[in-house]
Amino acid sequence: MGDGEERALGELYDRHGGVAYAVAYRVLGLRAGAEEVVMEVLAQAWREASRFDPARGSVASWLVTMARSRALDAARSSPRRTRPTPVAAPADAAASARAAASDGEVAASERSLVVREAVAQLTPAQREAIELAFYGGLTQSEIAERLQAPPGTVKARLRLGMQKLREALAPWLEERTT
Predict the structure, then answer these.
(1) pTM of the predicted model, to two decimals?
(2) For the chain: N or C, fewer Cβ within 10 A?
(3) Is 108 helix (H, G, I), strand (E, B) or coil?
(4) Which residue ranges in the chain fall short of pLDDT 50?
């Protein structure tokens, strides 16, 4: 894409479009909004391909970060300020993600399974706080208000949950970087 090859944009969509859609849908809860976010993210990736730095992370993480940011921006600017509570991505998003069964998608599927297993090790309270922060884009104060919990409790849930995730994912991350 950095060289302006249009075919590369299609490959990028095939490999990572399903994951970007799933993240956007989880934040917005709207199919049309999620599709729009994916198109905006792909356009941004096309424009900024030369700025991508593989030393800072993978293409998938770059796209997911852009999709999450754009979806959160869209949710915040929406006339209906109440964002839906995070829900699982629709079955068609999962199906479209599985449909592109390239090596990259197989690796993404493996990574997704590892992350799901790590998240399953969290307490329900830690998982809820992390989901509200990541998918809902809420601050610690907003999470405390939403959960009717003291801010210190929310901060501890987030910190301990992230620590558990870091520990659970460390062996996998070390294996992938060596």
Answers:
(1) 0.59
(2) C
(3) helix
(4) 81-94, 96-101, 177-178
- Contact between residue 75 and residue 54 where contact means Cβ atoms under 8 Å apart: no
What is d(CA 107, CA 38) in angstroms, rounded to the nearest whole number? 21
Residue written as tokens 């249009």?
Answer: 6
Residue 46's alpha-carbon distances to 6, 11, 92, 165, in angstroms, are 9, 12, 25, 32
Measure Cα distances from 105 to 75, 83, 92, 163 in Å: 28, 30, 16, 27
Which option is the CATH number for 1-100: 1.10.1740.10, 3.90.190.20, 1.20.1290.10, 1.10.10.10? Answer: 1.10.1740.10
16 token code pair:
């990572």
HSE (side-chain half, CA atoms, 13 Å) at 116: 7
pLDDT at 106: 53
Half-sphere exposure of 160 (CA within 13 A, CB side): 15
Q: What percent of the chain has pLDDT over 70?
A: 77
CATH fold for domain 121-178: Arc Repressor Mutant, subunit A (1.10.10)
